[in-house]
Design a protein that fits this description.
With 178 residues, this protein is an alpha/beta fold. It has a single domain, classed as Maf protein (Alpha-Beta Complex). Helix content is 38%, strand content 22%. The chain has six helices and six strands, in the order βαβαββββαααα. Strands 1, 2, 3, 4, 5 and 6 form a six-stranded mixed beta sheet that branches. The longest helix is centred in the N-terminal third of the chain and has 18 residues. The chain is globular, with a radius of gyration of 16 Å. The model has no long low-confidence stretch (mean pLDDT 95).
Amino acid sequence: MKVAAATRNPNKLRAIREAYRTFGFPAEVVPVDKPPGAPPQPIGLDTVAKWALERARHALAAVPGADHGVGIEAGVVEVAGRHLDITIAAIVDREGYATVGTSPAFQIPTALLHDVLQGRELGAIAEAHYKRPAVGYREGIIGILTRGVVKRIDLNYAAVLMALTPRLPHNTPHYRKT
């Protein structure tokens, strides 16, 4: 199976490969650039989901012969007066059928929140604050906060697993293709 992914981030690419393999789908993952116009830091659940879907559709269109396009987008959502970072994965196939899944979410540190809500990318803010380069390509801010117990790849992997769940052969009768 050929899977187009709208990312060049090694964390996201590895998470996609591992999630497909976990469910028994051998996948050749082909990276492409993200779609133009994507915000550096999506805010709001619908906006994060929209850009995960945009990434998935963009990837599918960019790779001839791809069976699936995958988009992974992290962003900020407000829950009970707290701001959380969540990752959403979307998978789109050639029939236009889209499935979506999320990762666990974690509360954004207060020291970083103001800049995040101004639309600055959380990874870039974390790099400056924690004085660590390429946080988003490594452990992610969650890796810093948990001292490596949970890493960004874990969140990406969980989101892709959840997006793949409706596509498992034993589940397809339970989902309407929309």
